Amino acid sequence: MCGRYELHTNPAAIALAFGLAHAPDLRPRYNVAPTQMIPVVRHNANGERELVQVRWGFVPRWAKDPSIGARMINARAETVGSKPAFRNAFQRHRCLVPADGFYEWRQGPHGKQPMRIARADGQPFGMAGLYERWRSPDGEVLDTCTILTTHASTQLAGVHERMPVIVPPDQYERWLDAANVEAAEVFAPCADLELLVHPVSTRVNAVRNDDAALIEAIDEAAAPRAAEPVPAGADEDATPELPLQERLF
To answer: How far apart are CA 107 and CA 30, in angstroms?
Structure first.
């Protein structure tokens, strides 16, 4: 699962890492949450890479109510090509979600403990995503996305059973090219990617907190019991009611 992440790499470095023609206009973010606008990299009409802002929480074209997207923040890589909600986007609208790290919650000595996961070398990475455009009967347009997940790597299995699909840089173009139907290898959980995993403050539980201190490692054994509500889990294939803003996954 991926329900919170961070992105604060310098925009020029993001442009270099993702093959963009220009540095994007982005501010540092340390607690990106579902229903917020997030940057994704995709192909434009000319087949060139571009970075655009979309809302995190997938809304299929056929949806009657866009609130369905609040809990369709993830899609299982194993079934994304066959599920009616994601099938069209998998065939036509693939994207990368740039990130510096993501958060998962594991059972700790004081309850659910947030853990930060990032590349050990500190470099940004691209998570596999799908995007879609929804139109209301009165012409309202909404662009949304979801992040694909796969089974956890051996390194992360003790934290959570799922993890986002991290696409190797040399596979970015392969993933973005919707004509490529053989994408199974991209879905593998990057076994050769060294990840940094450490506990962080429970302040990350609340969406209102968004500062660099959130990614700092803490002493889990000495950490106080969580004072913030722990975000609820999201069913990657479900479409339940819109949750409260601070209990998003």
So the answer is: 22
More confident residue, 137 or 89: 89
Q: Is the pLDDT of residue 248 over 90?
A: no
User: What is the per-residue pLDDT across 8-26, written as a single tens digit (0 to 9) for each?
Assistant: 999 999 999 999 999 999 9
Judge contact between 39 and 199, C-beta under 8 A: no
Say which DSSP state 158 is in: T
131 Cβ contact list (under 8 Å, min separation 6): 40, 42, 54, 89, 93, 94, 95, 143, 144, 145
How buried is 26 (Cβ within 10 angstroms: 0-12 exposed, 13-18 middle, 19+ buried)? middle
Given the candidates 3.90.1680.10, 3.40.50.2300, 3.10.20.310, 3.40.50.1820, the CATH classification of the domain at 5-222 is 3.90.1680.10
- Report the C-alpha gap between 223 and 210 in whole angstroms: 20
Report pLDDT for 107: 83
- Residues 146-185 pLDDT 10s: 999 999 998 899 999 999 999 999 999 999 998 887 766 6
CB 55 within 8 A of CB 144: yes
Distance CA 6, CA 29 (A): 6
Q: Where are the domains of the chain?
A: 5-222
Distance CA 166, CA 99 (A): 10
Of the candidates 14, 23, 204, the residue with the CA atom closest to the CA atom of residue 123:
14
Active site members = 2, 104
For residue 65, give every residue at least 6 positions away whose Cβ sits within 8 Å of its Cβ, in sequence order, or none: none
pTM: 0.89
